[in-house]
Design a protein that fits this description.
Number of helices: 15
Largest sheet: 7 strands, mixed
Bound molecules: 4'-deoxy-4'-aminopyridoxal-5'-phosphate
CATH topology of the largest domain: Aspartate Aminotransferase, domain 2
Oligomer: single chain
Number of domains: 2
Strand order of the largest sheet: 2-8-7-6-5-3-4
Structural class: alpha/beta
Distance between the termini: 26 Å
Order of helices and strands: HHEHHEHHEHEHEHEHEEHHEHEHEEEH
Strand content: 5-15%
Radius of gyration: 21 Å
Shape: globular
Length: 402
């Protein structure tokens, strides 16, 4: 499957680059009749990631941090090198001070911060801001900590993050009004997994002041666009390795270690997911070589095409960012996720219809928090292997449904 001549002009020069990268995804090239449009749930893996896993398991598989023979030493070194790689990948300005803890994904990363760090940081009467229309992984851990502390007589107030109704963006002005000296912890999301927008988190620091700790859910940004902790001034970043082309059961949480007590995940954690960590290193290397800036440009261009195409079809409502590519419009902040509904066809049914045409999409509530969308929707989420041809074909199938 190739890109059509209608490649958006701003990404025309990426055509060859994209074809070469797409060719590296064995599951994609083995199924030219299918279009995988669910990378926000988990991403497909390029050949070098699969090869790195195979090589590791057939040359030096051992436990890490134990044993003194070469395979064990090599495994220990791979784990430590991957920690450094995560720091570099996130553009860490002070890698000697930060911590990187490996997890199974974003959920476990956020929950580790909530369980092992937050209770040591909060005092009676403090406030935490919780993004109640974001993914439940970025809501439940914080309210669980609130309940846990309450049982110990420490009462923390949960402040619901304010949103702009039409776009699903945070309302930074309202947040600045809500935030006071007791607002000590703010949980935010980099790219919204339903609304598809970059949530402008670089503006959060200005809204909440210099002392509040900001914890970033980067599940939909790491691996899809350049993420710079230097530029964002956040304290924690949790992400899913498996959404960034590494194996299932991988992820990490990065901690700046500048505000509040040190982040020291508690307890004996046992044998690490060495194979997963090897795959994460290979995935981050691959992404760096491919260029996350170009991956972002490519997926943003496809998502903009889909958004604009849907807007021309009366039967569909786009959820979140809606307008076209006018300067500074929300669509330009739309990353590679587009969510929509049909006026008459239930989203679940639409999912079945789309699969009968070879499209794999997500159709449900997308694990959104209680302040999120009331009804189900269809989500298309893109990665670098997706093509303009896939988007055009999807639009023509959607158009034919009236
Ligand atoms: N946060 C966001 C924004 C997500 O999109 C997801 C995955 N859909 C998660 C958290 C949870 O990630 P994981 O399943 O890897 O724990």
């Amino acid at each position: 499957m190739t890109n059509s001549p209608e490649l958006p002009s701003d990404v025309k020069e990426l055509d060859e680059w994209q074809r070469a990268l797409r060719a590296q995804f064995p599951i994609v090239t083995a199924h030219p009749d299918l279009a995988y449009l669910d990378s926000a749930a988990t991403a497909q893996k390029p050949r070098p990631v699969l090869d790195a896993v195979q090589t590791y398991l057939t040359t030096s598989n051992a436990n890490a941090g134990r044993g003194t023979y070469p395979w064990a030493n090599r495994t220990t070194a791979l784990v430590e090198q991957t920690r450094d790689l995560v720091r570099e990948f996130l553009d860490d300005p002070a890698p000697e001070r930060s911590a990187v803890h490996f997890t199974s994904g974003t959920t476990e990363g956020l929950r580790t911060v909530a369980r092992d760090w937050l209770p040591n940081f909060l005092a009676d009467g403090d406030e935490i801001v919780v993004p109640v229309a974001d993914h439940r992984a970025n809501i439940d851990p914080w309210t669980e900590t609130q309940r846990l502390l309450a049982r110990q007589g420490v009462h923390v107030r949960v402040v619901a993050m304010p949103y702009q109704q039409a776009s699903g963006d945070y309302d930074h002005t309202a947040l600045a009004r809500l935030a006071g000296p007791r607002t000590r912890f703010v949980a935010v999301t980099h790219v919204h997994h339903v609304y598809g927008g970059d949530m402008n988190v670089h503006r959060i620091r200005g809204a909440v002041g210099p002392d509040a700790v900001i914890c970033l859910d980067a599940a939909q940004s790491v691996g899809h666009l350049p993420v710079s902790v230097a530029g964002l001034d956040v304290d924690f970043v949790a992400f899913s390795g498996h959404k960034a082309l590494a194996l299932p059961g991988t992820g990490a949480v990065w901690a700046r270690q500048a505000r509040g007590p040190a982040f020291v995940p508690g307890g004996w954690s046992g044998t690490p997911n060495t194979v997963g960590i090897v795959s994460l290193a290979a995935a981050l290397d691959w992404l760096r070589a491919a260029g996350t800036d170009r991956i972002e440009r490519w997926t943003v261009a496809l998502a903009a095409r889909l958004t604009d195409g849907l807007r021309d079809l009366d039967a569909y409502e786009v959820v979140g960012c809606r307008t076209s590519l006018a300067a500074d419009s929300p669509v330009q902040r739309r990353r590679g996720i587009v969510t929509f509904r049909h006026r008459d066809i239930r989203s679940g049914d639409l999912g079945f219809i789309l699969f009968s045409h070879g499209f794999m999409v997500r159709c449900d509530h997308h694990c959104q928090g209680s302040a999120g969308e009331r009804s189900e929707s269809v989500r298309v989420s893109l990665h670098v292997h997706n093509t303009v041809e896939e988007i055009e074909r999807l639009l023509s199938v959607l158009g034919a449904l009236g």
